[in-house]
Amino acid sequence: MTAQLWDKVANQVNFNLEIDVQRFCHLVKPDARILEFGCGVELRRFDLHAI
């Protein structure tokens, strides 16, 4: 995606999406190794060790 295209759509993106913890736990096993979880304000507050 080019910078010009991103500038046109960036204000439409919600960067503060809630994490569906129940769905996450259903899909990811407790002993799974996670390389990349994403980015965003909400993800910084999401503590994987707490679940």
UniProtKB/TrEMBL annotation:
The name this protein goes by in its record: Class I SAM-dependent methyltransferase
Species: Shewanella chilikensis
